[in-house]
Design brief:
It contains six helices and no strands. It is mainly alpha-helical.
Length: 132
């Protein structure tokens, strides 16, 4: 992990690694490692490995992570762009809060659909190989 930033209490943006940014975004989203793992369809140890910078996710998982956590892929990879605190401090009206909630639901449904599609494609490839 990187150096702690005394002002933020978490980490220094300049020294943050991919794992630091992932952990920060996950915590900001109010998710445990286990909850994020379930949503992504991976084992909790995989999330731990990513957050400890011992492993790196594949491109499709990076895209899913950025969507689930409401951060830009660029921020997740480089620290530049829209991170967990990406917007200005703006009061959120109930109407805007409801829209954001609906967007998170749709994002989650899209992620689940993408996972289902990937499993079906894998099954199809196997079935075609078995046929040949």
């Amino acid at each position: 992990m990187s150096e702690t930033d005394p002002d933020s209490g978490w980490y220094s943006e300049d020294a943050a690694t991919f794992g630091d940014r992932l952990a920060a975004a996950r915590e900001d989203a109010g998710l445990t490692q286990r909850e994020l793992a379930v949503r992504l369809g991976v084992k909790p140890s995989v999330i731990t490995g990513w957050e400890e910078d011992r492993k790196e996710p594949r491109a499709n998982r990076l895209t899913m992570l950025s969507g689930m956590l409401g951060i830009s892929l660029q921020w997740l990879m480089t620290g530049k762009g829209e991170g967990p605190d990406g917007g200005e401090d703006v009061a959120i009206t109930p109407e805007v809060g409801e829209i954001l909630t609906q967007m998170r639901v749709v994002r989650s449904q899209m992620t689940q659909a993408a996972e289902t599609l990937a499993r079906l494609e894998k099954q199809l490839r196997k079935a075609l190989q078995d046929q040949a």
